[in-house]
Amino acid sequence: xxxxxxxxxxxxxxxxxxxxxxxxxxxxxxxxxxxxxxxxxxxxxxxxxxxxxxxxxxxxxxxxxxxxxxxxxxxxxxxxxxxxxxxxxxxxxxxxxxxxxxxxxxxxxxxxxxxxxxxxxxxxxxxxxxxxxxxxxxxxxxxxxxxxxxxxxxxxxxxxxxxxxxxxxxxxxxxxxxxxxxxxxxxxxxxxxxxxxxxxxxxxxxxxxxxxxxxxxxxxxxxxxxxxxxxxxxxxxxxxxxxxxxxxxxxxxxxxxxxxxxxxxxxxxxxxxxxxxxxxxxxxxxxxxxxxxxxxxxxxxxxxxxxxxxxxxxxxxxxxxxxxxxxxxxxxxxxxxxxxxxxxxxxxxxxxxxxxxxxxxxxxxxxxxxxxxxxxxxxxxxxxxxxxxxxxxxxxxxxxxxxxxx
Amino acid sequence: xxxxxxxxxxxxxxxxxxxxxxxxxxxxxxxxxxxxxxxxxxxxxxxxxxxxxxxxxxxxxxxxxxxxxxxxxxxxxxxxxxxxxxxxxxxxxxxxxxxxxxxxxxxxxxxxxxxxxxxxxxxxxxxxxxxxxxxxxxxxxxxxxxxxxxxxxxxxxxxxxxxxxxxxxxxxxxxxxxxxxxxxxxxxxxxxxxxxxxxxxxxxxxxxxxxxxxxxxxxxxxxxxxxxxxxxxxxxxxxxxxxxxxxxxxxxxxxxxxxxxxxxxxxxxxxxxxxxxxxxxxxxxxxxxxxxxxxxxxxxxxxxxxxxxxxxxxxxxxxxxxxxxxxxxxxxxxxxxxxxxxxxxxxxxxxxxxxxxxxxxxxxxxxxxxxxxxxxxxxxxxxxxxxxxxxxxxxxxxxxxxxxxx
DNA sequence: CCAGTATGTTGTCACAGGCAACAAAACCCT
DNA sequence: AGGGTTTTGTTGCCTGTGACAACATACTGG
Lengths: 406, 406
Fold this sequence. Notes:
Chains A, B: It holds the Pfam family ROK. The first copy, chain A, is an alpha+beta fold.
């Protein structure tokens, strides 16, 4: 089944150069997502001719984006050359959270080769940018010679205007209308791309995690900062007009007057709350692991009641998402995986109860599969995506060149 | 800002033929949506060379899909040839509803040149297909000689598996798991494409109606058969894995135990109900026009209370949609346009109250602009889209050849 | 060691769109 | 009215990309 309207970019005509770019891009994307692929696999899944693949791979190699290795012979016929994404091409990831700024280095092959967590306390945007820039400079100095940098991807818990990297509102951080992207770019001299954290988590899960290979995915992450959502439809990230789409935590599901962190009533985020568990378990603070453990072995009536109530609320929201998106898989992250683990039957029954049979009959519910690297990988996809979209024209920055001072 | 992941079809390589197809397709789509465009306009908005446009237009002309006329000179310089979509190329539209089967003939230029409404009462799928086939045969006989038929598009009030034209559930019609598409195809000998009615309404509004030119649109239609929704994101129709996405009427917004026509609790459809108005106004049955009139001039307290309650429910749902989709425009159709007209301030305030500022600050609310032809136009887009996607390989059927008997 | 199979390489070819030069058809100004 | 200006259509040539076929290469298996 083909698709419909087709506006915007698709409206444009295409010339020969576009074809070359498209094919280079398609190959690089496959290699990036798989890490390593043989030339024959590339030939098969691209539909292009062997000779064309040869030519394109050579060009990618000359661009320093991939390298070839002899095959570890394993079948009939001449063994095919293995094409791998270069680990000399890296992106920085930044995650600004309430309690820390985390910076990572991710290779084009999708591997997190360094990660540094710098604790802080509800930093201002200026402070967070300064911390990030300092850690990036330090990590940059440690990169192997010859390494080239694509850029910086930033995952922010809040509403991000993707086009220019302005954080419209990050309630927990207290950021309102701050141009974090430009700030960090000025401090580092590198291109910076920002997006919502949960949206990036969704992307990461699709490329390397438990939603691998799926094209229609709903992602829900519940942390100390509320509930964030990410959606991918038909292989495309849902961003909306300005990048504020996918705020699944702020979906209204009940008539309750409870308000969420953004001040909206009766929303998923207002009803499924990490703090309720902390109170019930009399924990002042807890890591997700500790909280999940508590949930799994809780046995008093009060805790059970809380678990059931929150499970029901979660089920109602998931039902709504299924009706709206008809996804193949829903990925859960954060403490709500505890609800899924403990009350799976109840959750699935509730989901069925709150959604249309046709839409829910094949949907899978899974836990997030990437753990603490998820946001690093997801954020790195932002600069990598720029590179992959335009492999031969995107400029890379040498690791060893000093960043210009602002 | 470029987009993200890119799966599926985009993964494939591209060869020269694909370029030609893409460009033919892009031109034909522009001409189809605009009706008539000059060659120079095509050159400008496609970015292709004059000589290329000339070549492509010639090919489309040879395919009989467009024709050229001399310009009505109106500026400096040599007047550009006008390229128009052929009115000799048509599609049939079918809308199966509870009280009637409506069949239309739509030209590639987007004009409804015939429409016939065949009253019936909750027909079975077999009966509806038979009625549709009969009317199509009769309309087909009246087509001008030389007219060619692309196929049939069907708009169904229910959940449609787009891939094979099976209606999974149409509650009001009482259809469950019926292969309406194949049935109608067998009776007519024409290719048949089915989709949900509201989704097609959304497409129609984007191409020819009040959402013209927008790429991120939410469409909500409230009729006697409940509330249907259609969503277009980034110029692409939201369909989900199997085509069941976009069921916006079944979004849960309240804790109420009221059930909607599909048995779900607390949903938009269960709270915003046409029948409540008919009861309050003591109408046994009414056209949308009559009902809208009643709403606009209602002045008793009970009716006002109902209007306000339903407006609040609608606002809550719209807030949820804004948080999820961050659309540029929301189009309302059916009797809820009455709520918008009468209680616009209340609706907008409620929408603001129930959504994030960043997402709602620029969203437009508009009424549907196509009236009774909306579904005819939208349904015809299904076969037209096939033609437009593959202009040089899609087979057209001559109007005058007898349809083969099953 | 040879047949069989799968893959990489090379040179040729077809074909799409770009480009430049020219022709054509309008407007504008004197 | 007529030449200058502007815009557009047409034509022929060129470039570059991927397809294709033929050949070379590298492995398995008997």
